[in-house]
Amino acid sequence: MVRQVRSLILWTLIYRFRRRLTFVAVLLSMVLLSQWIYGDIVEYLRLSENVAYLSYVLVGKWILIFSNIAISAYLILTMFRKEEKTDKKNKSKEKNRKQEVITVDTLTERERSFLTRKLRTKAEILMDKK
């Protein structure tokens, strides 16, 4: 029973964050791929006797590895903060709506007349037609 609940929770989280987890998997696979490519480049540079470029290749490899790991860690750590961001956006929208309140003094004469008019429902309009 506990295994089934644990499995359900795990698969639910995987399904919920499938895009983000796919992106993390691609980034981490790029780290492994960069190691393979680095090995080929080092072998080529040794064979062609262009050893002067090895330092640049090494720096590029480690920049790629560290940036991919950092982006993956950021995506994993912020995976559950998505709900908080939407709450902040909603709060900021509510603040903007409160600031957009129009006072009666700024309305034109025609707009003020609409404020005092009695609004009729469809039922009242139909009753007046009969």
Stretches with pLDDT under 50, minimum 5 residues:
none
Q: Roughly what fraction of the amino acids lie in strands?
A: under 5%
- Give me the strand/helix succession: HHHHHH
Kindly state the percentage of residues in helix. Answer: over 70%
**Number of DSSP helical runs:** 6
Mean pLDDT: 81
Based on secondary structure, the structural category is: mainly alpha
Spatial separation of the terminal alpha carbons: 68 Å
Radius of gyration: 31 Å
Query: What is the 3D shape?
Result: elongated
Largest sheet: none
How many E-type strands? 0
Keywords: Membrane, Transmembrane, Transmembrane helix
Transmembrane segments: 21-39, 59-80
In short:
The protein has 130 residues and is an all-alpha fold.
Task: Report on this structure.
The chain has 6 helices and no strands. The chain has 130 residues and is mostly helical. Helix 2 (18-47) runs antiparallel to helix 3. The chain is elongated and about 95 Å long. The mean pLDDT is 81.
Key features of this structure:
single chain, 130 residues, mainly alpha, transmembrane
